[in-house]
Amino acid sequence: MELRLLTGEHLGDVAELIAEPDVLRFTRIPEPPPGDFARTWIAGYERRRAAGDAEAFAIAGDDGAFLGLALAPVIEREAAQAELGYIVAARATGRGVATEALGRMTRWAFDELGLQRLTLTIDVDNPASKKVAERCAYTREGVLRSTYFKQGRRTDVELWSRLPSDPSALTTAP
User: Fold this and answer.
1) How far apart are CA 45 and CA 51, in angstroms?
2) Given this model, what pLDDT does residue 81 score?
3) DSSP string for 57-99
4) H-helix or E-strand containing 2?
5) Number of H helices, E strands in the chain
6) Over 50: is that where the pLDDT of 12 sits?
7) Cα–Cα distance between 158 and 20 in angstroms, integer?
8) pLDDT by residue (tens digit) across 43-59?
9) DSSP code for 50
């Protein structure tokens, strides 16, 4: 597996990914996504990459196939913290892709960016994502009640965190 900078070359793959039911259910992507959402979303990450306050990688399999995304939607350099996330295509679930991608993103954030706190925001009804967080040695801090609002619905999310001093067996940077 490899993490590659997300660019316009991934437009078709991202458009397919964001149409998957579980992706729409468990992410902040609007439902249904506007027709140009994938393009504007990628362009937004490219702009924010240049500013240093976000990053996005395409997850590529050993054969180069697109498997999903590994994201840092919020990077606060002055506070030395970031929110991380991952979205794996349905065809690639159950193969450890999210765990490896989050492990690599975690090492990248600590080793390359020098961050001191990483967080994950996980829908309380997403057990697969919680298992990924556990496998990558993130600590569940608690539930934020009715904090996430999308399409007229409010949901609870769990906040998970990781510090560089936490024990780990994570992989190398992207």
Assistant:
1) 10
2) 98
3) EEEE-TTS-EEEEEEEEEEETTTTEEEEEEEE-GGGTTTTHHH
4) strand 2-5
5) 5, 7
6) yes
7) 22
8) 999 999 999 999 999 99
9) H
The domains located in the chain, with CATH, are 2-162 (3.40.630.30)
Question: What's the pLDDT score for residue 149?
Answer: 85
Give 130's strand partners: none
In single-letter form, the type of residue at position 36 comes to: D
Residue 54 makes CB contacts below 8 A (sequence gap 6+) with: 44, 45, 48, 71, 72, 73, 74, 75
In DSSP terms, which residues pair with 59 in a beta bridge?
3, 68
Distance between CA atoms of residues 73 and 93, nearest Å: 22
Candidates 140, 49, 143, 136; CA nearest to 98 is 136
